[in-house]
Amino acid sequence: MIYEDEHLLAINKPAGMVVHPTYRHPRGTLMNALLWRARNWPADARPSLVGRLDRLTSGALIAAKSRTMHAALQRVLSSPRSEKQYLAVVYGRVNVTRGTLDAHLSRSRRKRRTVIADSASGFPSQTVFERLRRIKASPIGAALLCCRLMTGRTHQIRVHLSERGHPLIGDPLYGSSRTGRRSKLLPESVRGPVSAFPRQALHAQTLGFIHPISQESLEFKSEFPSDIKLLLDILEQF
Known about the structure:
Elements: E1 3-4, E2 8-13, H1 30-37, E3 48-50, E4 58-64, H2 67-77, E5 83-91, E6 98-107, E7 115-117, E8 123-135, E9 142-149, H3 156-163, H4 176-183, H5 188-195, E10 202-210, E11 217-221, H6 226-235
Parallel strand pairs: 4-10
Antiparallel strand pairs: 1-2, 2-4, 3-4, 5-9, 5-10, 6-7, 6-8, 8-9, 10-11
């Protein structure tokens, strides 16, 4: 838990935790944990997540304590005044210090779990990125990026970076074929650990917004996860 008041909670979600219960994951989800925490709340209070993170993405997430607060937080977090920053480790030589990624995105008709760039019928989306660290990782290159969401489409950062030719290391949906080919070019000493990285290297680091009730400016930061730190250390070795 990062923060809690009478209206909302800020949570640090670990990678691997499912957000909502499903047929395959009926227990052990973040919502299960929140419902247990709320067992002694007032009768009219019930937790609900505002936004979501993929199972393999770590970082900051907000939960409301009532329906009214959920609606208010949805409005606030969809506002251009809110701040949503992610850290991403990608393959390839990112030769610019910052840039903007634009694409119209829609669900794939062939694979409903995936999102594709679709200029004809997709919804507009935009991600602004800044290169925080360039990693030599010869001969393929890698980089640590800070990505700011200007819109909130499903899998937006993952699709944007893959379309740009910089797939997230470990991304099972949008980087598997590209990252597989690239990881084979790594020196043998690091090829195994990088190829075996068990999730997309994506972390929701910062959430900032105006509290709907107090009007206080809030900013929550989730600590950089140890597994991505280790991945960067391995990539920096050569």
